[in-house]
Amino acid sequence: MIPACFSHPNTVSGGSQVPQNLITCIYQTQLCNSPTYLTLTWSKTLFSHSLTIYAADCFSITISLHPSTFSFFRNRPGSKSIYITHHHYQKIKLYWDFTRAEFNRDSAEPESCFYIAIASNAKLEFLLGDLRDELNRRSGLVMTHQIPAASLLSRREHVFGQKSFVSRADFLGSKHEIGIECGEGILKVKVDGKTSLVVKKLEWKFRGNERIYVNGIEVEFFWDVFNWVNNDKNLRNDNIHGNGNGHGVFIFQVGDGGVWPEVVGPEKRLMRKSLSSVAGLAAKPSVTLSPSLSCSSVLQWAEESSDCGRSSCSSSTRSNGSNGGFSLLLYAWRKD
Fold first, then answer.
1. Could you tell me the pTM of the whole model?
2. pLDDT by residue (tens digit) across 93-145?
3. Cα–chain center distance at 42
4. Cα–Cα distance, 276 to 282 (Å, whole number)
């Protein structure tokens, strides 16, 4: 094991780096025979690539997926034992292998040829990835029993582009490519390259929601592009030079939706940097800003549309467990 591969998620490392991609997924799984929300954050910048695994009140660990600049070797498979006091001082063990991981272009999350696993008392409780045989060979875990499937509740992704933004989502076991195009007062939503929704006159319809269908699956779509519309207006009227301050917010909700992960680590730094940038713009006279800088009103709107409502991941899970829904939340950032 290489100690340099681990760091506290709140430690600032290259805070000035702008992420190329940032993805946070929250799974409901079992940890020491107790239902647990497990949050995985994949972060990729020009010079770093990491995964943070977090379980509230249990543990948090960051793994580097990018080999050291001074290393002649690729990252090796690893493991680490962690003692958690929340479950009567029990030991869990993490296993991972990203040696041959394959990634889609610009994505921080691997597509195939990897594994992440968590075991307790020599029992596998969480597995993500497709190298099960490789995990069995390296860990020695007995895998005769059926591994309980982890339920993906929500996915939050920060995507970067000029007018087009692309993400990928799994709606009830069906994988799709999601495209967002925004320009000249028109918003287009594409699923697998086919246009599913067109919204015109964004100056008046900068927030809203519509129902779309993906392979027969009903998906509620919410959008908030107030920051973009307002910034474009300020640039035209006052000749302010900026870089598209703020972000567009897009939500795809299936069923009752999922649970929003907490904003921590590199994602928290990114949002904080955005707020400071917008605060700097606010000092200019005649510049209008959104009434809510930290949280888009469309998020509250989406929450209210759910029977159960959704909140950030906390120290305990709901007594009912997963509600059978899923939410994809996209923060789309403009870049020059």
1. 0.78
2. 999 999 999 988 778 999 999 999 999 888 888 999 998 888 888 888 766 56
3. 7
4. 10
